[in-house]
Amino acid sequence: MSNSENTKYVIGVDLGGTKILAAVIGESGEVISRAKKKTKPERPTEEILGRLVSVCREAVEASKLSFDQISGVGIGSPGPLDPEKGIVIETPNVNLTGAKITDFVSGELGIPAFLDNDVNVGTFGEFVYGAGKGCRHLVGIFMGTGIGGGVIVDGKLLHGFSYNAGELGHLKVRAFGAKCGCGDRGCLEAYASKTAMIKNFKKAVKKGKATILTELIGDNWNKLTSKVFRKAWDANDKLVINELERAAKLTGVAVGSLLDVLSPEKVIIGGGLVEALEEELLPIIRENAKKNCFPIISKDVEIVPAALGDDAGILGAAAIAWKRLKGEAVAV
Amino acid sequence: MSNSENTKYVIGVDLGGTKILAAVIGESGEVISRAKKKTKPERPTEEILGRLVSVCREAVEASKLSFDQISGVGIGSPGPLDPEKGIVIETPNVNLTGAKITDFVSGELGIPAFLDNDVNVGTFGEFVYGAGKGCRHLVGIFMGTGIGGGVIVDGKLLHGFSYNAGELGHLKVRAFGAKCGCGDRGCLEAYASKTAMIKNFKKAVKKGKATILTELIGDNWNKLTSKVFRKAWDANDKLVINELERAAKLTGVAVGSLLDVLSPEKVIIGGGLVEALEEELLPIIRENAKKNCFPIISKDVEIVPAALGDDAGILGAAAIAWKRLKGEAVAV
Fold it and tell me: Which of B89, B161, B253 sits opposite A263 (nearest CB)?
């Protein structure tokens, strides 16, 4: 501990639609302290950014470290965004469209700030500290309300020309198929996200189809958490099981396509749905991915569950801050 | 011309299923001389490799250069293959499975040899000398008998973990859909390749559907070249037009998916079908790509025809040789 006053830390921030998480994190990924606030996403942009800064300050306070020991802050935010300029381009669910996040945060805190989109950040967290440690080529897919993804090529996040590569939930698995929230048709997200499944459950219930869901959540579909999916599966609810199996099959097809295009070493599958039903869904995803990919590409690929859970966001944000502070490129 | 005896050149080789092309090429892409031989793909491996070496020698002879001025040879071959070891892993249509191409060629010619798969090489040719010049992120799709592709990320070919990334023809556009030659279902190639379309034409003709194809090629489907497609289109043949339009639409959907995943600056569409019907097919591909992609990703993307035609292979192979000779990485 002799050197502890000189040891440096960063803040990792996970800015979500309902809450903002911040943590003080060391270079090997150790979480020193945490803080949390509601996002209040409908409030004015300045207020949301103010809450973001104050949750950072709270995390530092809780760490008992001196602020001099904090070298920078990494932030994961919903996008699309411009990670180079640190600006949010558009966020339908949080009032941050056009917000110059990094300028604001580094102005307030007096340390460098770095920004990337939430799912990229989560994938980067798994790459540096989680299930993807040591891989050069990696794909992350996160199944929840929507389906997000991130791509690591040769150890760097793939941003591409628009800085917004890696929209893996919008891979078209059925050309001109089901309408997606993004406005297109046939996207994986239009079949395998919670939002898509709820749409189908509603239709089925309306048609008088029996399901334990009506018992578990009444007609309040907001209560349909991943845990409720788990309960319905355990109760052998056919409607829910069929829907989840279909979602897993189509996710497998999409993963197969991604293997053929990107040829990663590992595919990490995360998100609430997979956390709740890992043993049920992952084997179906694996089987259908292998079935939908060249054997030479799929043979040594591992399709594994995410390891960091909800901490992928803060840890990935911290990892980005660490690398950027050292002048290393984190993305191409 | 004072320095001409010291000027260096490389040989670019395009090893195809029916012919082997070789050319002596300067660093700015100038083709000094060419040679060509039949592949005779069913002959013993040693014989095919012998033909490859002798066509290289013929190209050098035709160039009137001294062999000392030839620094290396780049080779594009059907795959899958291991470009690092210079070994063909498998080629269903050419008897080269397991062939140590680069060892053999550099042993015979006494200069370094470099190998990559034919479609990667074509994409790299377009990237260095053709329609993709100056782009950092690029996708190439080539529509012919099959559908091949190549991906450039940050100026390098994407090989991925298996060295076989970029199998863009096997993106699934209709999960569990039409059977593909690769054994999977629903691949783009199962709808938009010449092979797939011929399958559908045969069925239609068998059902008694009228088409000018019977007049143009009788029942010899091997005669169904891209030029015949062109003629049938010009004759307003509904069967052919509908099939080509469907192929272009689904190619557009696949391009939209690829944009969402990779976010390139340009997509280059090449191959015999597109050369013969560029004005008819490209607008459909463009429209459907934009319709099937996030606007923020598609807005500045150009979807353009390939510029090098059949020379993409020899030029791409030469470009790989030039870069490798200088110790530059060409792939990740």
Answer: B161
